[in-house]
Structure formats: C-alpha cells, structure tokens
C-alpha cells in the first residue's frame, strides 16, 4: 500500500521509490517540479496567451509539409471510405467483428503497453505479457514502441510548447493528425534529447520489435486478420482485407489521435487548471480509458490514469486482470486522500 502522503515532497519520494521517474515525464504542477529552470505553470500560461486559431494553425514559420505522409494518409482514408461502402453494400459483418477483436488487442498494446507500461513505467509486466502487448502495439500500427514512447515522454516533459510533438496550442487539426504530416519543430529534436530513453532499449522485447517492426506490423495488422477471415468465414481476400483490416486500422488511429486533440481542448480540469489536458469521458470510450487526461498529466505514474477504480477504463480492468494472474505487478497508484485534497483546493480557487 502507498504511504500516507501529507505533502508534495512525500508524494515525490513515494513516486521515486516505486521506480517512477517524476522529473522527466510530468511537470505541470509547479509546486512539485521545475523544468528547464522555469515553472511549468508559467510556461503554460504564456503558451495559452500566444494561442491563435484553435483549429487551423498548424505551422511554426514556413510550411514544412511532409508530402509523402500526406499522400499515404490521403490514400489510407480513401481506402477507409471505400471499405465503409463495401461493408454496407455487402452486408457481411463477421470479418468486421473479427477486426474489432484485433482492435481490442491493438488498443491494449497502445494503452496498457506503450503508454502505461513502457512510457510511464506505472507498473511492471512479465515477459509473456510484454510480448502480448508488443504484438498488440504492432496491430495498432502507430510506429515502433521505442519511437512511440520517445515521442510520448517528450510530449509530457514539454507539453503545449514548441517541443511538444503534437502541441495542441497549434490547433486541433495539428494535435489530431497534422503533426504527422509536417516536419517536427526544431525544439522537438533539440529538447527531446534531454529525455531519458535507455530503459526502453534495455528491454529485449522492444529491441526485437524495433528490428522487425515493418514485417510484424504487416503480419499482425493486415495479413493475419485478413487470412483468418478468409479461413473462418470463407470470405474473399478483398472483402476480408477491407473489413477486418482497413476499417479497424483507420478507426483505431483516430481513437488514439482524439486523446491528443479532443482531450487537450474539451472537458473539465479538476486536478490542475494551469494545463490544457481535460477530462473527457467520450474519448475514454474510444481510447479504452485514456480520456481522463487532466488527471493523467497531473499524475502520470498512476497505472489507472484516472482517480476512479471503476468507469470507462477498459485498460485498467485489463491490467487488474493481468495482476490477478501474476503477469502484472507493482501497480502504482496515487494516494486517494491526496487526490481528493487536491480537487478541493482547485474547486476552492474556482469559487473565488
């Protein structure tokens, strides 16, 4: 059980004693930490003052579009709309339903794996679970684990600044998917080098996936679900590919992207009013519990990413189930009374 946390210093000691590196991951409570010699609350306030259009501002100077990515995502979305048309026209839904079982596996690979396990070290996992989550992350197809975790740690350390890969202050579209269509801001590259990453490559599972990511992605994201649909349901290869592969893949991408866009712009801020991330239960529906974003950016080492033990949080239930069978352990949680006390203070401030 966590210690009785009576002050900020004790909470920091609690997090550090449980193997959570507080300083390089979340810096939004200016009473807890300082980043780059500046109070993060002040950085947030300055960034908010400079905000222009909340939806269409996507550049940091001259346009720097990565046209290869624009073409790839354009083709991918055209295929997606064709897949929707094909599904509705044919009216055969078994491959589509099978695709959603793969979506659940892929979702756990992102939320319980890349995010809560490897990026934030909010719990530990034994080898079989790490392999399962690694393969799920291949299904999700959001770059290899090392790259995903690197970008996410940089996002937390420099959130809503030019060093944030998907800085929401550059507009909704940029935070959602525009950041993947443009060259990274120079600050992302320079300040990103300050983030500790050695622990990632110390895991042989990550090293293996990084080496063989492309074939693993193609196999588990498309070939495996397509072939399984053909074998189980006697489907055509074309229909199986579009219904079990393309439909699932593009939809799951947007469910993850909504965390970076919608959950940074719409919702309440009961835990820290000085940061952009919000509590958005609708995002949690699509992202398996990742919508409690104000809480998560305030307490990134909490494996539940939410104050509540129950709710729209499939990822927490999965981790709890893995802990029950001994595959997950050392689950980190913020002391309840500290969270309640913090909410009361925020609420009292808003009333004055």
UniProtKB/TrEMBL annotation:
Protein name: Stearoyl-CoA desaturase-like protein
Subcellular location: Membrane
UniProt cross-references to InterPro entries, sorted A to Z: Acyl-CoA_DS, FA_desaturase_dom, FADS-1_CS
UniProt GO BP: unsaturated fatty acid biosynthetic process
Entry GO terms, CC: endoplasmic reticulum membrane
Alphabetized GO MF terms: iron ion binding; stearoyl-CoA 9-desaturase activity
Keyword annotations from UniProtKB, A to Z: Fatty acid biosynthesis, Fatty acid metabolism, Iron, Lipid biosynthesis, Lipid metabolism, Membrane, Metal-binding, Oxidoreductase, Transmembrane, Transmembrane helix
Pfam families, per the entry: FA_desaturase
Record's bilayer topology term: Multi-pass membrane protein
Ranges that cross the membrane: 65-88, 100-118, 212-233, 239-259
Superkingdom, taxonomy of origin: Eukaryota
Domain Fatty acid desaturase residues, every copy: 96-300
The species this protein was found in: Dinothrombium tinctorium
Cofactor(s) the protein needs: Fe(2+)
Family under the similarity heading: Belongs to the fatty acid desaturase type 1 family.
Main location, first listed in the record: membrane
Domain comment, as recorded: The histidine box domains are involved in binding the catalytic metal ions.
CDD domains in the record: Delta9-FADS-like (cd03505)
């Amino acid at each position: 059980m966590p210690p009785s946390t009576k002050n900020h210093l004790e909470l920091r000691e609690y997090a550090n004693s449980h193997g959570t590196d507080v300083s390089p991951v979340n810096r939004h409570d200016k009473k807890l930490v300082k980043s780059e010699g500046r109070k993060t609350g002040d950085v947030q306030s300055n960034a908010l003052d400079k905000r222009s259009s909340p939806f269409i501002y996507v550049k940091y100077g001259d346009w720097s579009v990565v046209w290869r990515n624009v073409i790839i995502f354009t083709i991918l979305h055209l295929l997606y709309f064709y897949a929707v048309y094909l599904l509705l026209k044919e009216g055969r839904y078994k491959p589509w339903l099978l695709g959603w079982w793969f979506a659940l596996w892929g979702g756990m690979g992102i939320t319980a794996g890349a995010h809560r396990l490897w990026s934030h070290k909010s719990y530990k996992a034994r080898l079989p679970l790490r392999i399962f989550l690694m393969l799920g992350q291949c299904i999700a197809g959001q770059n290899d684990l090392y790259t995903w975790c690197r970008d996410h740690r940089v996002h937390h350390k420099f959130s809503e600044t030019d060093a944030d890969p998907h800085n929401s202050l550059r507009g909704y579209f940029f935070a959602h998917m525009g950041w993947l269509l443009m060259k990274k801001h120079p600050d992302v590259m320079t300040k990103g080098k300050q983030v500790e990453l050695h622990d990632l490559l110390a895991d042989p599972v990550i090293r293996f996936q990084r080496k063989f990511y492309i074939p693993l992605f193609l196999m588990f994201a498309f070939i495996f679900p397509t072939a399984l649909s053909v074998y189980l349901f006697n489907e055509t290869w074309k229909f199986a590919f579009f219904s079990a592969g393309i439909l699932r893949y593009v939809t799951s991408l947007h469910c993850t992207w909504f965390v970076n866009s919608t959950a940074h712009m719409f919702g309440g801020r009961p835990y820290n009013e000085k940061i952009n991330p919000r509590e958005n239960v609708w995002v949690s529906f699509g992202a398996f519990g990742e919508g409690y974003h104000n809480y998560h950016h305030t307490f990134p080492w909490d494996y539940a990413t939410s104050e509540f033990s129950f709710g729209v949080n499939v990822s927490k239930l999965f981790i709890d189930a893995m802990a029950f069978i001994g595959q997950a352990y050392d689950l980190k949680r913020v002391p309840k009374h500290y969270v309640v006390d913090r909410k009361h203070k925020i609420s009292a401030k808003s009333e004055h």
